[in-house]
């Protein structure tokens, strides 16, 4: 029995996805969450997850940060991004940041089932038309891949402008531990300041243009 985690904060869309999944995988086990913190809780609680269907615009996430963190935390678990932002650049960035597939929220219902079967079989599923590869995003993905999941969390909170003490409170860490993480993040990302690291993290956000 395969376990599928559906991460989307819109109840009606989540229900539609779950219905489509049950049609495609009648014997599958479906889990649903509505925020980044709930995604992380599910990853901690579930020893085996075979696939994640991930919305990019959930509470607690900054664009592709959820995808990058998920790939760092559980690199063996394939991720299909499901998003209403299906601009070619968004699709290409999803692929460069480690997604195994991309399905637009405006796609026919059958596309989701086809994508799920393809990715579970070890393949990938992306629209035929997507933007050209970006060397900037490739470099960013490579730099972020050096960070541990906890360092990624610290980076995302840095991007929100939080101080070390506030980050420590958010993550349940000692302030000195946060300082160590911040130092490691700056070194690995080749950033001279917290501000520079924050700007880098914010580049993970989604383009507003359609």
Automatic annotation (TrEMBL):
Single GO BP term: regulation of DNA-templated transcription
Residue numbers bearing the 4-aspartylphosphate modification: 55
Residue ranges constituting the HTH luxR-type domain according to the UniProt record: 140-205
Key words, A-Z: DNA-binding, Phosphoprotein
Residues annotated as domain Response regulatory: 3-120
InterPro entries noted in UniProt: CheY-like_superfamily (IPR011006), EvgA-like (IPR051015), NreC/VraR/RcsB-like_REC (IPR058245), Sig_transdc_resp-reg_C-effctor (IPR016032), Sig_transdc_resp-reg_receiver (IPR001789), Tscrpt_reg_LuxR_C (IPR000792)
CDD domains: LuxR_C_like, REC_NarL-like
Listed PROSITE patterns: HTH_LUXR_1, HTH_LUXR_2, RESPONSE_REGULATORY
GO molecular function, one term: DNA binding
SUPFAM superfamilies per UniProt: C-terminal effector domain of the bipartite response regulators, CheY-like
Pfam family for this entry, one: GerE
Listed PANTHER family: HTH-TYPE TRANSCRIPTIONAL REGULATOR YHJB-RELATED (PTHR45566)
Protein's name in the database: DNA-binding response regulator, NarL/FixJ family, contains REC and HTH domains
Source species of the chain: Dyella marensis
């Amino acid at each position: 029995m395969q376990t599928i985690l559906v991460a989307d904060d819109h109840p009606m869309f989540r229900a539609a996805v779950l219905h489509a999944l049950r049609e495609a995988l009648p014997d599958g086990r479906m889990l649903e969450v509505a925020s980044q913190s709930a995604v992380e809780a599910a990853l901690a609680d579930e020893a085996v997850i075979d696939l994640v269907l991930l919305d990019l615009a959930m509470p607690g996430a900054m664009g592709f940060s959820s995808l990058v963190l998920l790939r760092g935390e559980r690199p063996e678990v394939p991720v299909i991004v499901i998003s209403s932002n299906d601009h070619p650049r968004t699709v290409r960035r999803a692929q460069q940041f480690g997604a195994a597939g991309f399905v637009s929220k405006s796609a026919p219902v059958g596309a989701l089932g086809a994508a799920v079967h393809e990715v579970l079989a070890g393949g990938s599923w992306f629209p035929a038309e997507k933007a050209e590869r970006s060397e900037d995003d490739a470099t960013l993905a490579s730099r972020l891949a050096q960070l541990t999941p906890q360092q990624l969390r610290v980076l995302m909170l840095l991007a929100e402008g939080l101080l070390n003490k506030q980050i420590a409170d958010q993550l349940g860490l000692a302030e000195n531990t946060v300082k160590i993480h911040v130092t490691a993040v700056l070194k690995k990302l080749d950033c001279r300041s917290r501000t520079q690291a924050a700007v880098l993290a914010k580049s993970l956000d989604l383009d507003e243009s359609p």
